[in-house]
Amino acid sequence: MSQVSTIHRRPTVVFVGGGPRTVGLLERIAANADELLGDGPIDVHVVDPFPAGGGRIWRREQSRLLWMNSMTSDVTIFTDESVQCEGPIRPGPDLATWVAGAGATILERAGIQQPGPMDFPPRLVQAEYLSWVWDRVVQDLPATVTTHLERAVELTPDQRVILASGVEIQADLVILALGYLDRLPTASETAWAGQAAAAGLTYIPPGYTADVDLGDLQPGEHVIVRGFGQAFIDLMVLLTEARGGWYDDHGAQLTYHPSGAEPILYVGSRRGVPYHAKLGYTVAGTKPVPTRYLTKVALDSLGDGVLDFDTQLQPLIDKELAFAHYQQLFTAHSDRTRWSWSRFLEVLDRSLPDAPEFVAAVEAAVPEVLDRFVRSAVDRPLQGQVFEDWFTFEQHLAELIEDDLRRRADPEHSADLAVFNALLSIYSVLSVAITEGRLSDEDRVRQVETEFHGFFSFVASGPPPRRLEELLALHRAGIVRFAGPDLEVAIDNDRFVGRSPAVGGSIRARAFVEARLPRPDVLAATDPLLRGLLADGTLAADELFAADGTSLGGGLLKADVLCRAVRADGSVHPGLFLLGPSVSGSAGSSGFSRPHFNGPGFRQNDAVARNLLTLLAPLAPAVRKEERHAS
């Protein structure tokens, strides 16, 4: 007992979750330790049922056919000269540099083809990169690092982390970096499952596609799929190429050769169109810049207290996006404009994108409709359209996808890249507004976490262009059919029936797949640790209701600006920190940071790491003194 007690008197930090967020935070702890920790060693424990580094999403054990939706050159775990933080910059290789250097031998040994800097690599490449980064970070830490390949199931009031095996770790500080959480089915999903089972149908609820059992989807049968984002792309791959089909690159267009094991997928969604393809080009010097209209100063000028998203924030967001689009158009492609940028900017500065004065300025200064930016049109490209038959609709959608592929590959439309970068900057401002309590719970859930995040994902987090080329090839092969926007699904006797108001008729199928991640709702999370901490009030995530009494679910965990957990009584827990996509206002949760882009996740990680070290430093000298006395 005395030996265990001595070990646990050393400053001890426990990370629950061993994925990229934990790796990034540990890198910042290593970088700042010399300044803030001194000579005192610390103990670090990382608890995760999946190997540290990649965690669940970026584990090695997954299909080689699943890709990242970022180019190799757009991913890094390390800070660089662009990052504005208080701690020291410790450069390291981004993914592309690693692939061409230290990673080349690792990938060859793993039998993974080496991707180029402009390729969208298999997720297994990122898994190997994160494993390598993990090893490097552990070597740099002034700590003994212990990993536990199991779940944490309880955190006691005296900061003991209890694992599923019964092991207990006495912690001074605990960081929950849990990533995406499994959750209990909603009432609607439970009802769907019950009705489908009673009718002998197959219903697959929302979930992480790589972990979903698709074995009940039979060759040649019709399957209704609702969801046209990343989850659908993964589903498409796992039900086609992973079942033995193959693509032929020869000829004028991509051709898919079925294996005969594929089901027929009828895919639709609210928009009825796939996410925009990732941009296939870069423009030197183009990167996120500080916002011009949606700023903290501007929000503070609107008064104290809670702001209204629709009337106070959305106009500034629209103005920010319009500014980014038109500034790039006027400065990089002035031959397609009729006014000077300064004249046009004067109008934008004093108006809003939907104001008659600005609309008139756009019509006068930007002659081509394709060069104009209207957020609502970008967000809902099929809004209000009705098609006389399925053939006409599917032909129209195929042409939309082809046009999108051409545009997203053409730097002549670099205004799209400027909008992408503006969305990143807007997200940073909204994260601060959330953590400072400037938004109501209803606006946070409905407007930011649902509508704005959906628009962001649609525009900025789409698939690699090749995936949309494959989608079109599968459509030509009759494997993928388009079901339309605002797709509604019901059960009629012994079949699922799908209908879209944009197209007459219906689709009947034995199987229905909800191809999307579940909406975050930590009150419905299945994780036993979170459920216990929410139940005893250590964590807070109120059940939220709209003004009309409609339930909004449980939303996200609450944390303050230092990422400390906010308890149910509103107080701040001094030794429990929260990071990741299940935490309100957590920066950098939408994806990996890009090199030389001053990623908000880096800035937040550095601030949290410095705070953690500041809290640990006073504990270390006493520990060293006690250990010397004991010896």
UniProtKB/TrEMBL annotation:
<protein>
    <recommendedName>
        <fullName>FAD-dependent urate hydroxylase HpyO/Asp monooxygenase CreE-like FAD/NAD(P)-binding domain-containing protein</fullName>
    </recommendedName>
</protein>
<dbReference type="InterPro" id="IPR038732">
    <property type="entry name" value="HpyO/CreE_NAD-binding"/>
</dbReference>
<dbReference type="InterPro" id="IPR036188">
    <property type="entry name" value="FAD/NAD-bd_sf"/>
</dbReference>
<dbReference type="InterPro" id="IPR052189">
    <property type="entry name" value="L-asp_N-monooxygenase_NS-form"/>
</dbReference>
<feature type="domain" description="FAD-dependent urate hydroxylase HpyO/Asp monooxygenase CreE-like FAD/NAD(P)-binding">
    <location>
        <begin position="14"/>
        <end position="180"/>
    </location>
</feature>
<dbReference type="Pfam" id="PF13454">
    <property type="entry name" value="NAD_binding_9"/>
</dbReference>
